[in-house]
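Put briefly, the fold is written as integer tokens. The lines below illustrate.
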Amino acid sequence: MGRRLSSETQVADITDFSHDGRGIAQVAGKATFITDALPGETVRFRYTRRRRDYDEGVVNEVITAAATRVTPGCAHAAACGGCRLQHLAPTAQVATKQAQLLDSLSRIGRVTPQHQLSPIVNETPWGYRRKARLGVKYVHKKGRVLVGFRERQTHLIADIRQCPVLHPQIGDRLAVLAGMIATLSIREQIPQIEVAMDDTHCVLIFRILTLISDADRAQLREFARQYDYVIYLQPAGPETRVPLEQPARLQNRLPEQQVTLNFAPGDFTQVNHHINRRMVSQALALLRPGPADHVLELFCGIGNFTLPLARHAGQVTGVEGDIDLVQRARANAGYNRLDNVTIHATNLYEDITAAAWLQHRYTQALLDPPRSGASSVLAHLPALGVQQILYVSCYPGTLARDAGILVHEHGYQLHSVGVMDMFPHTAHVESMALFTR
């Protein structure tokens, strides 16, 4: 149970950074996690929660600022929960993420890389995000609709008018979008809008909880034409998505690899196209597949790594558990005229011992698992003959756990590791690690 909070403030010296981007201090002998504080700072803060083992707070005043502190580039940074690190300089954000990655590997996996890769960073930390889920709420007291991300530590929609981390085609138009929704008869029955973009199209998927009238449909059509959007409606689960008019043909292009990936609005794709292209190029540079290599890719999705690998390797076998993504990956292989690719549908978190693709030998493997990691499949890799493993991670904790398994149980070495700043201004850490035998 949390303790009753006092309105009094306390002074604290910040000594470290938490994995979620809060400053850590020792106050009265207890670890205290303080939002908006940076290591090296002295701050005045107020408590927001008190527990037996640790406390939480938020900065009221920065008494001594860190050299890495900057003014947030978004006017809504103090209220919106979408970004936690805008007060930290972009270069320091990346250095902090690299340090957190190395700490996780050492502390959790008990491994140390032989080499550190140079971080992959954005040309600009703004306007990069091309996928998002935006909350929608008609607020009676305000007499208008709010569209955006949640407020910090609440379930309420932040009252924001624009978002500089979203691509400008949507980020600069949140107020316009909210104003249009306010004119609809179903404005209180739209809880969410999902955004999906390629280089040409911006798709808005409206989650709706009721039947939509002809007048509302006409209003949405006019809005889509005026601002060059493609609108989908989703009355229930993802399988119910339908275009308001013509469907969008979305494509992610990887120019260096001469690969084009077709995808549907609801498919998993990376949010940051610039970082994704550099990430794929780095993966190829580290593995260096050739005609003699048979590469196994697990959690292959729509083929983001699969098809670029196939431009160089003799053969690539991809495995994915989502049948829609499997079908998309197969179609993408055909679209790119790659006949050395085989895609299998297998849930990699279930028993896979009878899987047909386990009957082959592979020289290299690429793993791109979700946050839960890939521990369920690691034991198979040595028996398949895999000499190199490239692990693309979206969570340092599970990468560190799996690195420990690969090194201490299966005889691999952690050759190199580095971060990729896929989500600037957030505490999210994307990374890539190369293991060799």
Remarks:
- The first helix runs from residue 90 to 109.
- The mean pLDDT is 96.
